[in-house]
Design brief:
Shape: elongated
Distance between the termini: 46 Å
Strand content: 15-25%
Structural class: alpha/beta
Number of strands: 20
CATH topology of one domain: Rossmann fold
Radius of gyration: 26 Å
CATH superfamily of one domain: Vaccinia Virus protein VP39
Length: 492
């Protein structure tokens, strides 16, 4: 395996060869003056081409390519057609040739609307050993405007995370966004287009694919087809990028098998997890839960979920002068027992004349029936808000929904427990959403359920019980050492 290219090496190459200019980059590829391995040339090209295009420069890591290659589908056909709809410099090509090079014929069609990028990809293509069974077509055009004349056996792409106003996307691609007013990301419409023509799709998409309403129509379609693998890249997988991404391996050709178990690999934890697809994509919850297991369902069954409205304050100016002012609760005011306490030396206040009427601050200031939540990746802390106090902007205010009973001490103890935080981390797929609570993940906040009877509809709709046969226990992996052997069917 080639050595990892470092920031220092890339900086040196940039200064010496001026590689942000595409003609210089192509010359560098052709001459290879420093004897880089072919895959390193692809990475160098991807890094400097993305920089030229005004993006944050990056390249895909070798580990990521290897993980993808090992999970690519076995295609029985002898003549196959593979498309990359947004190929950049074509970095997937060596991996695809290695995987499928023994076929009678492979037809590649790679798209990119940037003509300079396509020329870089052509230069890299010349590095490959050209067998007679391989044909390559580079298209200097937007794949979204392409009418495909035959089924695609495999589509693979790193779909863009670029976001823009819905009206811009609607103007550019009206047919692909019709009926979906929430689409604001190009990755959504690339995946939608891929559905129409492809028998199998490998797609790198933002991790918020698992959560947001924007992707819900896509999730609904995918949930009705066989999901073979998911690679949770977390913030890894790309050099110099910290965006959270996942890779989905989706079979659109084979009839859905309701007993299908999805293999989920975590690049953060370096471990595999297997989960029944019916449970992973369950509509009982607002998002897909890729690490769902028996521990998660045991906690979820004990709770009445979706019981809070959440809000945050905007506090204009703070002071350390308590005169004619209200105490502002900060994260530091939670003690080790998750109780809100004063710290006279460092407490802050907001003056009465700074509070604007009809703001969240004014509406919540005097209410003692609210709760304050501090959430980090490691811990959740909840306590009742004292009357005549304000919660700082970094804290979350919890308001019980109409007709919900007040929280008991046992409810608050449960919300402050390490088990609850581990459950919440699973619910939020160990993503950046695990650090805080938003309008989607607030669904998972709850109180102990008083009812003895639970709805068994989800359990009876599947033939498998909830045993995940996990290779590792996700619920404990970061914060606990003991094993969780909980194993029972899903009665949520």
């Amino acid at each position: 395996m080639a050595n990892k290219l470092t920031e220092k090496t890339l900086s040196r190459l940039s200064k010496k060869y001026k590689l942000s200019k595409s003609t210089n980059l192509i010359s560098f590829i052709n001459e290879n003056p420093e004897n880089f391995e072919n895959i390193e040339l692809y990475q160098i090209a991807q890094y400097f081409d993305s920089k030229r295009r005004g993006e944050k420069p990056y390249y895909i890591e070798l580990e990521t390519l290897e993980l993808i290659k090992n999970r690519l589908p076995e295609i029985k056909k002898k003549d196959i057609y593979i498309v990359d709809p947004i190929c950049s410099v074509g970095i997937f090509l060596p991996m695809l040739i290695e995987k499928y090079g023994n076929k009678d014929k492979i037809s590649f069609e790679f798209f990119d609307k940037d003509p300079e990028t396509i020329e870089v990809a052509r230069a890299l293509w010349k590095l490959e050993s050209h067998k007679r069974n391989i044909s390559m077509s580079f298209q200097k055009k937007e794949f979204l405007n392409k009418r495909v004349n035959k089924n695609i056996d495999l589509m693979i792409g790193n779909f863009p995370n670029a976001r823009t106003a819905h009206r811009v996307i609607r103007k550019e691609h009206p047919g692909l966004v019709k009926g979906h007013k929430q689409i604001q990301s190009y990755s959504t419409i690339y995946v939608k287009k891929a559905f129409v023509w492809s028998e199998y799709i490998v797609s790198i998409v933002p991790k918020n694919f698992l959560f947001t309403d924007e992707y819900k129509p896509v999730r609904d379609v995918m949930s009705k087809t066989n999901i073979h693998n998911i690679i949770d890249m977390d913030t890894k997988g790309f050099f110099n990028l910290k965006n959270e991404n996942i890779i989905l391996f989706n079979d659109f050709k084979t009839k859905l098998d309701y007993s299908n178990r999805v293999s989920v690999y975590s690049m953060k934890f370096k471990r595999d997890h297997h989960v029944n697809q019916k449970l992973l994509t369950s509509k009982t919850y607002p998002n897909w839960i890729i690490y769902r297991n028996g521990f998660f369902s045991r906690i979820a069954r004990s709770l009445k979920l979706n019981t809070f409205n959440i809000s945050r304050n905007v506090i204009p100016n703070i002071t350390d002068d308590p005169y004619n002012a209200y105490w502002v609760i900060r994260g530091d005011n939670f003690d080790e027992n998750s109780k809100i306490v004063k710290i006279p030396e460092t407490d802050i206040y907001v003056h009465d004349d700074e509070i604007v009427s009809n703001t969240n601050l004014s509406k919540t200031l005097h209410r003692p029936d609210l709760y304050v939540l501090k959430s980090t990746l490691e811990k959740m802390q909840v306590d009742q808000k004292p009357r005549d106090t304000a919660a700082s902007e970094k804290l979350i205010i919890l308001e019980l929904k109409e007709n919900e009973r007040e929280l008991t001490e046992e409810d608050i103890k449960m919300l402050n427990s390490s088990d609850f935080k581990n459950y919440f981390n699973i619910a939020t797929n160990f993503s950046s959403r695990s650090k805080t609570v938003d309008s989607i993940t607030s669904f998972y906040l709850g109180k102990l359920d008083d009812q003895e009877e639970k709805d068994l509809s989800e359990t009876t709709s599947i033939s498998l019980d909830e045993t995940m046969t996990d290779e590792f226990d996700v619920s404990k992996i970061e914060f606990k050492d003991e094993d969780d052997d909980y194993d029972e069917e899903d009665n949520n």
